[in-house]
Amino acid sequence: MSPSIDNQLQTAGKILIDSKEPLKKRFRALFTLKNLATPDTIQWINQAMTVDDSVLLQHECGYCLGQMGLVEAVPYLIDILVDTKQNAITRHECGEALGNLACLCEAEMKKKVLNVLQNQLDDESILVSQTCLLSLDKIKWQDNVDEFELKAVRCERFSTHDPAPQFADSKTLEELESILMDKKSSLHNKYRALFSLRNMANSDGVHSLGKTLSYYKNDRNMDLLLHEIGYIFGQLCDPDSIPYLKEIIASKDCHEIARHECTEALGSIGTQDAIDFLEKFLHDDKIVVRQSAEVALDMTDYFSCDQLDV
């Protein structure tokens, strides 16, 4: 590692674990470490994830570990996932990260990951149990996919590691909506439909995703799905999603995992309307929501859609 990179790593790491630093500054440090993506960054990120009391920061640490593609993170992710004293939002993110990293593991470690995920299917938190089921379904799909399907689901527009692939075969908007609205369809297939709509990257897809948000808004078994749509809206940065995001953020009945993700998505869009709305939630009853509003407002200068080449 070059001295300049090592200095950058040390500086960002110290900021990340310093609870006296503003949360927005610590988030910037976290994403600096994510972009460096070395085994040394894992130590800093894990330290923040295990000792900090901000669930928002903890869960973002888990997300980054799942996106970096480093198997050295797996033992740390397992430790958090199985620790029922940890917040369910953080544990969910670790379960999803394990689904991303399992395909990179040696056989023995992969078997351990599969066993851990299987054991958490009966977790008392539906967020955790659903996440682990999604990860198991993703790993099973990866183990059986052929080269043709793998090529068909690839989408160069989005580089993230997602909890499910889009459908390989071309489906109409109506078919995807039908899968999403069908309460008998599996969560894995619903997620595949979500990412198929995301990859369309057009207004019709945005409104289909928005209708799904509204449809399940009062169903507490679908909070994980709601949060994933919020995440996708944050990737798309389409102003057409603003009314749907506002609806979830303002709903106190929705789980904070969904409200927080929609809050961050609104910050990614970064219009004046979005900013004005976010400012109303800086004093929300839920700390995860108000911290998300704080970070989202800070990030508007960095991730405003006016500045993104998407």
How are the elements arranged and paired?
Blueprint: H1 3-16, H2 23-36, H3 39-51, H4 55-67, H5 74-82, H6 88-101, H7 107-119, H8 126-144, H9 147-153, H10 173-181, H11 187-200, H12 203-216, H13 223-236, H14 242-249, H15 256-269, H16 272-279, H17 287-303
Q: Please, could you describe this protein's structure?
A:
This protein has 310 residues and is an all-alpha fold. The protein has two domains: 1-144, Leucine-rich Repeat Variant (Alpha Horseshoe); 159-310, Leucine-rich Repeat Variant (Alpha Horseshoe). The protein is built from 17 helices and no strands. Residues 305-310 have low confidence and may be disordered.
Summarize the structure.
It is built from 17 helices and no strands. It has 310 residues and is mainly alpha-helical. Its cofactor is Fe(2+).
